[in-house]
Structures are given as structure tokens and as C-alpha cells.
């Protein structure tokens, strides 16, 4: 069923491209907005437009939004390299490899943690949306490390609440460019989708409150190894905050990393690893902590930065 929206263009979007304006108004990707425009489903002051046309404040938009695509279902197949750190009747803690998403999403065709667990014969909770059953927190597809998945329904509800109430200890290690000043500090800056609508996130006035604490573990000539403690858990939070203070994660080309340094260190993704995860067991009540060792690619690049820089 289609959804027809009619609304004036806010003055704050004066001069924006039509595809960018649609992305911001309706929370779409730029590519999906462009597809809607190409289908002739966008009128500006009664006329069809091209994606590169510009909107003007007070102009009248009529947009026919197609129905959202059906959520993808997890494909049950083992994920090579995904290690089980701990498992009982309520939870399973994994060390997630790179190139693996937490759960299926539109446009992602690679392996997922949920699918990998199901494919290896593990059970997961049935609570939550169909595509993300058992998932109580996420790591980016190319961020590695410790991640807990709920197996029982009670574990799902209690862990979701624990993450929401910030009663979980999430520690990451990140190799960032340069040397943060001060060596230990806090980045307290709101995050929301980047105004470009290209899938990135950014520090944006009026965004969701986001707090990242960092501490320098070791300083090299060209980079620093940080331990990071997340107080909040926004999408791409560490990557956005490190980029905002001009010390992006090595290899994170999406957020401004130097491609030359990344290539010299052999880093082909953001150097970011969820090294430790601590939480209260959802049924037993005891505090548990799990550590995930560096994967080979990050360990090699760390040796290289220590030797060469």
C-alpha cells in the first residue's frame, strides 16, 4: 500500500537537491530517494522533478512513498571464524569476525551472527523483529569482537533493558591516527544521520546524546592505540566521535582516514575491536566478563605500526 505525503519544504532546506531533501525529510537513503524521483513519484509545486533540481523554502512537495520492503530473513549457515566464547541455556557470547553483520538488513547480502548461530545448530530467542531475533546489541559488519546474543526470552528482555539502562561494560580498542590531546578524555557530542543522506552518521546539533570515553594505551609515531568505554551506543559512535576530534580510526576511509597510512599498515577496514564485554547474567545474576583477542589482521597491523613508526 502506497503512502502519499503532502507538505511544504522547510526553510532550512532552501537550495538543497531534491534527493537530499527527501532523504532528510523521510529518513531515506539518497539512492532510494533518487529511485522515487526517477519513478515520477515526486512533485514540487505540481511539477515532476529531477534528483538534482533544487528545492526552495515554502515550495509544496507531494511524494508517493512505496511500501517498505519486507524485512530480510536470516540465512542459517555457519560463519567461518566466528568463535563461541561462552554458552548456556540463556545466552551465547561470540567473537565476531570481520565482514559479518549482527543480523540481516536490507541491502546486506553477507553472513550474519544470527544466521551463523542458527546454521551451527544454536538456538536464539524468538523475541524482537523477525530479522533480529535474539539480538540485544550490534557491532558494525567490519568491527570485530565480543557480542552477546540471547537464547531465552527472559534473557532477551533483561539484556535489552540492561543495555538500555547502561548497565553493561563495553570496552573497545581502536588504533587512531595521530595523538589525541589530551591523551585521556571524553567526547560528548550528539550524533544523527549525516545531512548528505549517504549512510554516514555525524555530530549534528539536536542529534541523540552520545558520550565516548577514551584513554591512550600506547602512542606510536603515526597513530595511537586507545581503550574506549561507551556510555551510549549510537550507530558508528566511536567512528564518528574519533573523526570529529580529527583522529579517525586507521583504515576508516568512510570517516576520513588517510588511505596512504592505511595501505602502509595493511589495514583494509576500520581498526576497531570490541575487546571486552561485561554484564550481569540475565538469570543467574552474577557479573560476567568476556574478552576477545585481536584478529590476525589487526594484530599484524599493530606490530607494523610499532616497528615502522
Question: What is the fold's blueprint, element by element?
Answer:
Elements: E1 3-8, H1 18-26, H2 30-38, E2 42-44, E3 47-48, E4 60-65, E5 83-87, E6 91-96, H3 113-119, E7 144-150, H4 153-164, E8 169-177, E9 184-188, E10 191-193, E11 201-203, E12 211-219, E13 223-230, H5 237-244, H6 259-265, E14 272-280, E15 287-291, H7 296-308
Parallel strand pairs: 7-14
Antiparallel strand pairs: 1-4, 2-3, 2-4, 5-6, 6-7, 8-13, 8-14, 9-12, 10-11, 12-13, 14-15
In short:
With 309 residues, this protein is an alpha+beta fold. The chain is 21% helix and 28% strand. The mean pLDDT is 92.
Question: How would you characterize the overall build of this protein?
Answer:
This protein has 7 helices and 15 strands. The chain is of the alpha+beta class and 309 residues long. The chain folds into 3 domains: 3-65, RNA-binding S4 domain (Structural Genomics Hypothetical 15.5 Kd Protein In mrcA-pckA Intergenic Region, Chain A, Roll), CATH 3.10.290; 69-165, Pseudouridine synthase, CATH 3.30.2350.10; 166-309, 2-Layer Sandwich (Pseudouridine synthase). A hairpin with a 2-residue loop joins strand 2 (42-44) and strand 3. Helix 1 crosses helix 2 (30-38). The longest helix is centred in the last third of the chain and has 13 residues, at 296-308. The radius of gyration is 21 Å and the shape is globular. The model has no long low-confidence stretch (mean pLDDT 92). This is Pseudouridine synthase. The active site is at residue 140. GO terms for molecular function: RNA binding; rRNA pseudouridine synthase activity.
